[in-house]
Design brief:
Blueprint (H helix, E strand, L loop, with lengths): L10 E5 L2 H16 L4 E5 L10 H6 L7 E2 L7 H19 L3 E5 L3 H12 L4 E6 L9 H12 L2 E4 L3 H8 L7 E3 L3 H8 L6 H8 L5 E5 L3 H4 L2 H15 L3 E5 L5 H6 L8 E4 L4 H9 L3 E4 L3 H9 L3 E3 L8 H4 L3 E3 L2 H14 L16 H14 L1
Parallel strand pairs: 1-2, 1-4, 2-3, 4-5, 5-6, 6-7, 8-9, 8-11, 9-10, 11-12, 12-13
Length: 367
């Protein structure tokens, strides 16, 4: 049987937030090359144009076949709305397979709906664990993996996590990291000078991003965070594109009151990674940015007690810090200015994860 004849029903990709788009682009391209029929459902979980639509343009993603326009809300409200919209879409499209990405609410909602409709699920970025069940993302990824027929794994330790949770070994496939495919494919487009000129930024700066509920949702925590970010700004200018989540609390805490803090609106993928590439260091609570800085060789300080991506510490430039550790760690990172980055790359983070994922999926559907 010709591989182009294997899949008659569409493969449906469910995308809801910035990291999903970056991971999906190489997978969609590789499946297109394999001749698979595909559909893209944008849930609208990230509804700001700069957090979603611009990524479709910049990453060459096909226009979504539908945008559910779910928007923000509490976890129960948002997940329920996602499930209602996705059930309607899956029922009308009868997919051969649903592919979900990462750990956002769109991911678990799609996996739940597909499982109850007896549609196979593939989870890209399966097996990552922070072991912190206070994180909504940890709940989402654990449950998604239990419901997935294909667990597509980005780093070796994730295989062990899945085995420990009783996921049959045949479901797990180490394929590499499609987010790194996108990064490497766009290296020539990341023009730091252009971004600095467009936003009147200094030549040397620390780039910061903060959006985790534990860091920004409570006003008193946001105020403590701002205090320490101001401490970093005493050492070097801080450039912070502010995520819609937590913006009000951070601004109310006086984030923009330090003369060396540059508050920006969210940036598109190309401009954002260009800004990361040119940074002396990065301060973040993001998951994906830990991976991107690992490949770019930029010192990364992750303001969290744990990470589901420990490989970025053992093979990359990442370090976990508390609020109190942030300023001394930033001082050390600025003094080293990337000298300790080395050339440590996690296995299979080589720009070819998309084709490996497509091969696994086409073989699964062919069987």
């Amino acid at each position: 049987m010709n591989r182009r004849e294997i899949v008659l029903a569409p493969i449906v990709h469910v995308l809801g937030a910035r990291p999903n788009f970056v991971k999906a682009a190489p997978v969609i391209a590789a499946l297109r090359a394999a001749g698979a029929e595909q559909a893209v459902v944008h849930t609208g979980q990230h509804y700001d144009e700069r957090m979603s639509e611009i990524f479709f343009v910049e990453l060459g993603l096909p226009e979504p076949d539908v945008n559910l326009g779910v928007g923000s809300g509490g976890h129960a409200e948002q997940t329920a709305a996602l499930m209602i919209g996705l059930e309607r879409e899956f029922t009308s499209r009868s997919p051969a397979l649903v592919i979900v990405y990462g750990d956002v609410n769109s991911t678990i909602a799609a996996a739940l709906v597909a499982a109850k409709l007896h549609i196979p699920v593939a989870h890209v970025e399966a097996g990552l664990r922070s072991f912190d069940m206070t994180m909504p993302e940890e709940v989402n990824r654990r449950l998604t993996d239990q419901l997935s027929d294909l667990c597509l794994v980005t780093s070796p330790e994730a295989i062990g996590h899945l085995a420990n949770e009783g996921v049959p070994v045949g479901r797990a496939h180490l394929v590499g990291n499609p987010m790194i495919d996108t990064l490497l494919a766009n290296l020539d487009s990341f023009d730091t000078g252009k971004v600095r000129a467009a936003h009147d930024l200094p030549e040397r700066y620390v780039l910061a991003t903060m959006h985790r509920p534990a860091n920004v949702d409570a006003p008193e925590t946001a105020a403590a965070l701002v205090k320490h970010l101001h401490g970093v700004a005493d050492l070097a200018d801080v450039v912070i594109p502010v995520h819609p989540r937590g913006r009000a609390n951070l601004i109310a805490a006086g984030l923009d009151k330090h003369p060396r803090v540059h508050v920006l609106e969210p940036l598109g993928y190309i401009d954002f990674i260009a800004a990361v590439r040119g940074a002396a260091a990065v301060v973040t609570d993001s998951g994906g940015l830990q991976e991107e800085t690992t490949i770019l060789g930029v010192p990364c300080l992750t303001v969290r007690p744990n990470t589901e991506r420990p490989i970025t510490i053992t093979h990359g430039t990442n370090r976990l810090v508390t609020f109190e550790e942030l300023v001394p760690a930033a001082r050390k990172a600025l003094e080293s200015e990337g000298k300790d980055a080395g050339d440590r790359k996690p296995p299979l983070w080589d720009g070819h994860a998309g084709p490996r994922i497509a091969d696994v999926i086409m073989e699964f559907l062919g069987e």
